[in-house]
Every structure is written in C-alpha cells, then in structure tokens.
Amino acid sequence: MKDARKAVCVIGWPIAHSRSPLIHNYWIKQYGIDAEYRREAVPPKQFEDFVQNLRALDYIGANVTVPHKEAALALSVPDDRARAVGAANTLWYHEGTLRSTNSDVEGFLANLDATTPGWDRGLESAIVLGAGGAARGVVYALVTREVQRIYVINRTAERAEALKTKFGTRVRVAGWDETTGLMGGAGLLVNTTPLGMEGHPPLDINLRCPASLVVADIVYDPLDTRLLQVARERGLRTADGLGMLLHQAVRGFELWFGVRPEVTPELRALVEADLGKTAEVVQPIAPEDHPAIKKAMARRSKRNKKQG
Ligand code: ATR
Fold first, then answer.
1. Measuring from atom 22 of ligand 1, which residue has the nearest CA?
2. Ligand 1: distance of its center to the CA of 298 in Å?
3. Considering only CA atoms, which of 51, 113, 129 is closest in space to residue 88?
4. Helix, strand and coil percent figures for the chain, each rounded to 5
5. Which strand (E) or helix (H) includes residue 276?
6. Residue nearest to ligand 1 atom 14, measured at CA
7. Is the pLDDT score of 283 beyond 50?
8. Are strands 90-94 and 59-64 parallel, antiparallel or unpaired?
9. Which atom of ligand 1 is nearest to the CA of 135?
10. Is the distance from the beta carbon of residue 191 to the nearest atom of ligand 1 less than 6 Å?
11. Which atom of ligand 1 sits closest to the CA of residue 155?
12. Which of 28, 212, 256, 289 is packed most tightly, with the most Cβ within 10 A?
C-alpha cells in the first residue's frame, strides 16, 4: 500500500507573514517527498486543543511561532535545547510521544559556521544586545560553544540579570554605554533586539573595534540592516538574520522526513525575493495610482471634455 501524503504545519497567531511554508515546500519538492507544509492560524485559547489533536489532524509534526513557543514547551517532552531556552519551536512524534526542540539555537550556530567559519576559534568574549526570548537562545548557543564571557546588554537590566541567573557566571551584565568599550576585547557582537527592524527605531552603536569582530543580526526585515552595513563598511565579517532563519529550518525537516536538507543559494534567493515582494505590497499606493481612482478620473476628464 502507498504511504499517505505527509502533512506538517507552522502554528502561529497571526501566521500570514511566516516564510516557513516557502522554505519547507521548496525542500519537499527538491527532495521529491510526498508531503505538504501548511500555515495554521491558531489563537492562544485554542492552541492546547490543537496540539493535543495534532496527530488526529493528520500532522506528523509542526513548527510553532509567536505567541505559542512557551505553551508548546509545556505540552511536549522537550530536549535540552528547548528546556534551556524555555521555548520550543519544533514538534515531532517519537514512538508516539510528542517531542520538542528549539531549532533557533542550531540555526544561530549553523549560520555563523557557514558564513563566518572559525568565528568561535579561541573566542573568549561575546556581546549580546537584548535579553528576551531570542537572546536566551543565543546565550545558550554561546554557552554550548564554551564562550568564556558573554556580556548581555539590555534596556531593562533585570532581564539581563535573569539570564545570568539562568546560565551562570559566564554571563555578565553590562550597560549600553559600555558597548563600545567592550568591543575591544570581544570576538562577536549579536543584536537580538528589534532595533533596526522595519517600523522600529534604529540601532545606534559606535563600531569602534578590532577588524576581527564578527557581527550578527537576527533581524531580517530589512535584510541588510544598518548594523550589518556599517560592519561591512568597516571590513568586518557579518552573519544576517535570513541565514539564521534558513538554518533553523533544517532540523525540523530532518526530524519529520529523515533527510537533512541543504541551505542553498537558490533557496536563499527565493526567500529574499519573497521578502522583497512583501515590502512592495506593504508600500502604500498613491491615490492617483489606484485602479478605481484612475477610472473615476478618466471618466471625469471625458465629461469635462464633452462639456468644454
Ligand atoms: P524576542 O522573543 O524576539 O527576543 P522579546 O522577548 O520581547 O522578544 O525581547 C525583545 C528584546 O529587545 C528585549 O531585550 C527588549 O528590551 P527590554 O527587555 O528592555 O524590553 C529589547 N528591545 C525591544 N525594543 C527596544 C528598544 N526600543 N530599545 C532597546 N531595547 C529594546
């Protein structure tokens, strides 16, 4: 008997913006797998019900995004990564049990390994801007690579302190005004805040640093953030947010379909084009360019001519 077509989804609220279907359906086609990856808009109140019925809904697994990552952790058996970060974004079944991981940890590291090879060789000190959910994943990732000192800089100092409590003495809390000073001895700077993202204030820091500093930004809209532009102008090596997004998708695909997919330049170009398309759609249309308004104006000028 032929196996049934497999289905996986990404669950979020809202979910329309998610690029995960584009990435996974590209790989599904590329590797000739009989499967489909869908979007599921699930409000917080219905999330538990949805996850508990995931298998009954014919899904073999799922990605989970905002605002459900903490709830997903509580409803599954997490691995070390998800437990350490306190959030899960990938669900799969193992011998009938719903398991979870946090693939952002792997995505962050794999992107740096691919785009800035050797970045962690002898790396003693790193600077992490922000102390939210994304920062937890980044700090945990740096702990696993045995970075000795991880300076967490955050607007709200208590959240940075909470990361220190969670991950131990490798984490040090510093203030924004210390950023440039710390860069002298650091090998890596990571922005995990939304600063520099479309619709958010810019990230204003002075990149006075040695040429060996690697700069990573998790923001991918815009793709080329001001932070990355300035870093490149200064000759620094950079890793962008889109690379992390693509690399974090690898683990889920491997868990669901048993194939470890490749992040290719073609896939990257596909998602880049899609990011560009959204930006165009979001652009407000000038009133005179709107088709209905154009028609009305043409009608009026015809009438005027007749009257004239
Ligand atoms: P995520 O899960 O994406 O990390 P989050 O948990 O809301 O989202 O965390 C966002 C991070 O960006 C936080 O560190 C936040 O700082 P606070 O802890 O002080 O809120 C930081 N951030 C967001 N907007 C910021 C701003 N305008 N200036 C400085 N930091 C900002």
1. 193
2. 49
3. 51
4. 45, 20, 35
5. helix 265-282
6. 130
7. no
8. antiparallel
9. 4
10. no
11. 19
12. 256
